[in-house]
């Protein structure tokens, strides 16, 4: 039965991608971001663990059937939600898609301002630990600051890159565009690579790719997209596998064998840990009922220096250990989850709302589909919104909602404000704000007429 559930999970994911492409002809549709990662986590990984006998030490067959049934239902819900949001939207005509010249300048200015703030925050964290060499002379180290706003402020580097790439994709001057892209991408890339961090590496690659293609209305060829995706996936696994060997001055041998990440039966494996979290919560009848997620929105922004015991006072002290996902393993299962582990999105939703995790994941899929649809049909700020969601998709699927909620706010709000400011120039001249493709096309037509 468990093997049948694994096969069904893989089949519905493939069907989801096929339906998405049949309707949209868009290789950047969210199904092509979410489905492959869900396939790895909920089909390929447990299949390899089952083949090697690695699951037997952690679960019996009834337990595996139970958790895989949850994963299958959650996967189906996400696919249905994503597809129901709309697939009948095709990329814009490349002749009319680029951002109008009037907005390009302001987007570059916004890129410079937001990226500089992000770069300043990044530099402060590096200076605090004694400079670049000290920051990256040990495995998985990096910079630091006691202020969470300074640490998280480096996320603005990604906004700077995204806005500059979108402006350049629409015809903005090469030199300022490339200077902004390089100036903001290189610090982020250095930190991502030298710390062996899969999320930031994946995020930068996706932001660069989508920021280039969305404004232009073009798409990379399918075979090229598959090659890029495969290369990126392997590289991300390579970073995680060699995380302890990557730092300045390291003389440790790197390995290209990434199979342990997917196949090694250990308590930190995402499938094993996530399944354990599901079973532990069920046996203890302990669910958070949205308290962890609300804490990310309303409690996390308050500095710890002002509210030292904020999570405990809010009723979720568990957030300080594995984002609240690692409680009760020993008592319920007889083994403990590894520190720093993540359960994957469906298990994380289960911890929060029990079986309501299934429709909630469907709602998340619908949100991805709806934002993609808006980015195609209306463009404008929605392109920045979808780019941010796409960049965070690896955190969503492979980790927890806690890894996504605050980062989404950090990326979306500044990007949205930058786009609205860029559009204000046209409103001040008595013209409609460019929020839809037709309005953007009208502005470009007027530019041609004046030329």
Automatic annotation (TrEMBL):
<feature type="transmembrane region" description="Helical">
    <location>
        <begin position="30"/>
        <end position="50"/>
    </location>
</feature>
<feature type="transmembrane region" description="Helical">
    <location>
        <begin position="221"/>
        <end position="240"/>
    </location>
</feature>
<feature type="transmembrane region" description="Helical">
    <location>
        <begin position="149"/>
        <end position="169"/>
    </location>
</feature>
<feature type="transmembrane region" description="Helical">
    <location>
        <begin position="107"/>
        <end position="129"/>
    </location>
</feature>
<protein>
    <recommendedName>
        <fullName>Oligosaccharide repeat unit polymerase</fullName>
    </recommendedName>
</protein>
<keyword id="KW-0812">Transmembrane</keyword>
<feature type="transmembrane region" description="Helical">
    <location>
        <begin position="353"/>
        <end position="373"/>
    </location>
</feature>
<keyword id="KW-1133">Transmembrane helix</keyword>
<keyword id="KW-0472">Membrane</keyword>
<feature type="transmembrane region" description="Helical">
    <location>
        <begin position="70"/>
        <end position="87"/>
    </location>
</feature>
<feature type="transmembrane region" description="Helical">
    <location>
        <begin position="175"/>
        <end position="194"/>
    </location>
</feature>
<feature type="transmembrane region" description="Helical">
    <location>
        <begin position="379"/>
        <end position="398"/>
    </location>
</feature>
